[in-house]
Fold this sequence. Notes:
Helix Hairpins
Amino acid sequence: MSTDGFAAESHPNHQPGSDSMQLPADVLGDGSVGGEMEALAAVMRRLRAENGCPWDRAQTHETLRPYLLEETYEVLAAIDSGDLNELRDELGDLLLQVVFHSQIASESGTFDVADSIRAIREKLIRRHPHIFGDRKLETPEQVRDMWERIKLEDKGEGDELNSVLSGVPKVLPSLTRAFRVQEKMAGVGFDWPDASGALEKLAEEMNELSEAVMSGDRAHAEEELGDLLFSAVNAARLAGFSAEDALRMSTEKVISRFQTIETLTAADGHSVHELNLEELDVYWDKAKELERQVRRP
Length: 297
């Protein structure tokens, strides 16, 4: 269960506008960005207060980790759906996670949500000298390169390894992490000039994987598979695609198509469990044809 749903259900006065409620003034927003943000922070303070919600009071930075991931993926799902109302709501749920973590930190005197907002505001100003300074940058690539250079400067001389790649989180999904590593290397010019070179490398890695698999050397085959996937991400990036998004969409397509197979087989009095591969392939082709019919104008 996401934290927004649990928190709302934990409090009988969770529906603003109800005639039976007498809400405290500090949790009522005024419609402005600042006013609504202050009100949201006030709601979270009350949820975490001594007489607040038992569930919210029990949470830590660590226990909230899965909810932060869940809300992030729900934002991505809303973007994929094209439903802007859903996107609005999911962004609110994600913002709740920011406020939640900031409130927990404020209780230990570390920082509060205002500190987080100020930090990102100052970072944006510092890393956009072409907007807030006198630098002249004309292209997205120039802006990206400038961002990376300033980011390295921000790390300071005290860092153990002030690497171009040190800011890529290890916890990112592997395809996304590969993309970010490639993007950062591209920022210093270590990149193919276009997708053609990356596609040739992809074909080369496919051949090497085939040879490794046929050799029976499992460790070598696994290594070559990793190289193939990394090359696929690189080719996708240079072609202007996100490998993570492409794989997610393909997975959803396969899920939809297989569920169509289940429907078709059931309509014929069969089950996917009792059919062999050849028979399932026939239904697979039928499912693909139904997809084409739906897409036709």
